[in-house]
Amino acid sequence: MILFWDGKFMYGYEVFHEELMKNLIESVHGGKSSHAYIFEGEKGLGTLEAARLFAAALTCSNTSISPCGTCQTCIESKADTNPDIIYVRPQKDKKSIGADDMRALSDDVAIKPFNSERKVYIIEDGALLTEPAQNTFLKTFEEPPEYAVFIMLIENLSTLLDTVLSRFTLVHFPVLSEERIKKYITEKYPEEKERLPFLLKYCSGIPETVDAVINDSEFESLRDISLEKIFALASRDKRDAFVIQKFLEEKKENINQILDFWLSFVRDAVLIQLNARDKIMNVDKKDILKDFSSKTNPEIVLMLYDRLVTAQKMIKRYVNIKGLSLWLSLKK
Ligand SMILES: [Zn+2]
Predict the structure, then answer these.
(1) pLDDT for 30-86, tens place per residue?
(2) How far is the CA of 89 from the centre of ligand 1 (A)?
(3) Are 233 and 203 in contact (CB under 8 A)?
(4) How many angstroms is it from 93 CA to the middle of ligand 1?
(5) Residue 23: in which H helix or E strand, if any?
(6) Distance, CA 150 to ligand 1 centroid (Å)?
(7) pLDDT tens across 171-227, in order?
């Protein structure tokens, strides 16, 4: 028999919100399932895996415990070959899901399930639905067949029309508590004892960020060389602006990560100024932090913080490294 929860997997699925999933699955058994769910939460919290589990529960042939993990449907669900669980994503050459895609989906919804009592549609990223697509979806939704269930994953609800939102049952996936993520790190990566305090702060309760950091062999070296440049960044010497520019040009592909490192470091420096040392993130870099805070004027630190926050937004729209470097170096 498949275990409900073995400390890591729930019915064989690696989810991080076991209590929430338990309630959700029980609500189905209690006959309180909805036709549409939004799983809202930051990337990296395992909402897709949670949706896979929920879809398995919704389609399992055994209704007593769900998902049983042993029926043909459950085996297919686990292998992503269950014909009654459909993943909705943009077509190969497209970046978004348009009205045409939604009309095709609507045709598919009209076809009865193959084996199960339900047919589940997992919309993997609701942010990719264009506005016309959302309107087309609403039409499908006016009278959905009894068997259809939609699960939409999304990071941020702001891209959805209110009319769409109001039709869905909203399920919020919070970031993990420090205790829960600590358990995740220590069990999966017992060798990471030394970096644990940093990982806890840096990954802010998101397990996939932990995986990304630990499995990225370049992470620590990039972080180290980025932090070495922090004095040049805060300097008003013109030559240092070139140091920053050269560095960013060389590391163009990693610019987001570098800005992340700088921002978290400067944020820590602000916290030190505010006497809130217990909140700092770069706990393993206390020496550089201390050095930086003592050598840098508090006003400059605050100004740099503001500029880094803005730089992160700017970089999403365009990259002009020369301009960005000069501006970051407080020359303007
Ligand atoms: Zn089953």
Answers:
(1) 777 789 999 999 999 999 999 999 999 999 988 766 788 889 999 999 999 999 999
(2) 26
(3) no
(4) 35
(5) helix 18-29
(6) 20
(7) 999 999 999 999 999 999 999 988 898 899 889 899 999 999 999 999 999 999 999
Distance (angstroms) between ligand 1 centre and the Cα of 62 equals: 5
- The full 3-state SS of 160-198, as one line of letters, equals CCHHHHCCCEEEECCCCCHHHHHHHHHHHCHHHCCCHHH
Distance 125 CA to ligand 1 centre (A): 26
Rounded Cα distance between 113 and 107, Å, is: 13
Which residues, 6+ apart, have CB-to-CB distance to 310 below 8 Å?
A: none
CA–centroid distance, residue 58 to ligand 1 (Å): 9
Q: How far is the CA of 72 from the centre of ligand 1 (A)?
A: 7
What confidence tier does 332 reach under pLDDT thresholds 50, 70, 90? very low
To the question of domain 18-172 being in CATH 1.20.1290.10, the answer is no
Architecture per CATH, domain 216-329, reads as: Up-down Bundle (1.20)
- Distance in Å, CA 97 to ligand 1 centroid: 31
Domain map of the chain by residue range? 18-172, 216-329
- Give backbone dihedrals phi and psi of 87, rounded to 5 degrees, phi first: -95, 125
